[in-house]
């Protein structure tokens, strides 16, 4: 019996076509508006600044400029430009020209603010004291950081007095600052003065120098030359070394020789520490006193 085999027909699968549609985003045409708005804002601010500066007197503009350059020195100088100082430092005493004009139209001017001179003076003194305390710390840090200066630390005495900040360079028995009986500085003394001169140039205060000796009478030299002349010559030699270290010579207000009239150790007039150079960073009261003495 013959079995017939029928051929199986292949199964037809449907063809699926996937079409991906890309969405094209619309171009943004508003970005330039933001940039334009920023430009217009900056332009408006510029013209507003120009209008304000044109309405302020040139004297006050100069005062404002000086304040932002050196605000502390302008406060301590009490302002060479008094109009600018009042309006910027003290708290706005200087009248605004526009307000003054408007008040004049109304027939009345606003009352001026009264500043207590004593309070203002006390404020200036406190600010100056803070600056001198900062200078004292800077000098101490320089001495501690320098290996060569550190070995002379015992000969460098820094303190605050009624005259201002005082820096004393004293002799030691085996380490004098000058050659014996002379105003010629030892190399390490010049090095100390050079380091101090750079720092003193950073403050606006005037500087005073005084030379001191012990009670030993001067033995050599020309007739009439004594410890008075020697102490004055040593103070002047120290002034020259400070200038070579970078300090402006215009800062020097006083150079004096005091011989043994102001001993460091009154109990021992022959103590080596009585031989010293005293550098005074003057406060404002001391400066005014020196100027008044020179006017008499």
Describe the protein's architecture and organization.
- By secondary structure, the chain is α+β, with helices and mostly antiparallel strands.
- The chain is built from ten helices and five strands, in the order H-H-H-H-H-H-H-E-E-H-E-H-E-E-H.
- It has a five-stranded mixed sheet with strand order 1-2-5-3-4.
- Helix 2 crosses helix 4.
- The protein is elongated and about 140 Å long.
Query: What fraction of the residues are assigned to beta strands by DSSP?
Result: 5-15%
* Spatial strand sequence of the major β-sheet: 1-2-5-3-4
Terminal CA distance? 157 Å
Helix content: 40-55%
Shape: elongated
User: Helix tally?
Assistant: 10
Summarize model confidence as the mean pLDDT: 77
What sequence of helices (H) and strands (E) makes up the elements?
Answer: HHHHHHHEEHEHEEH
Q: C-alpha Rg, in Å?
A: 39 Å
Unreliable stretches: 78-95, 97-101
How would you name the oligomeric state of the polypeptide chains in this document? single chain
Largest sheet: 5 strands, mixed
Number of strands: 5
Structural class: alpha+beta
Structure in a nutshell:
By secondary structure, this protein is α+β, with helices and mostly antiparallel strands.
